[in-house]
Amino acid sequence: MIAAADVLAGTITGTRLSDLHSLDHDEVFGVVENALEPFPTERRQCADVCIEALRATFADLRATQIEEFAGEKALVCTCFGVLEETIAAHISERSLKTTDEVAAICNAGGGCGSCRMLIEEMLDALRIS
Ligand code: FES
Q: Which residues line ligand 1 (CB under 6 A)?
């Protein structure tokens, strides 16, 4: 379990959640298993516990972000608490063209990825105007 936790910590440091397939359990398990050895069936729960703890931590973080948001402005990225107007300002001021560029500047879209379509629509709308 310690080895699995160590691999997870090393893997997620500096990595976007979207690059971890939004923490899909099987994908993350594959990462752990590739770094270590294939888990014997009776030891699989060692990695499962670590992965579920990681997923629960990010779910709690996201829920906290939503709970703490009390503004009236549109919140586009709940993972990182980024407002629509913040994203629009970055797109306009820095002439951003892609969701990856937006994520690099303000993290929006760099978590679970569920807001990426909204960001893509904003990029399209601001490109046209
Ligand atoms: S809502 Fe998860 S990355 Fe934006």
A: 77-79, 108-115
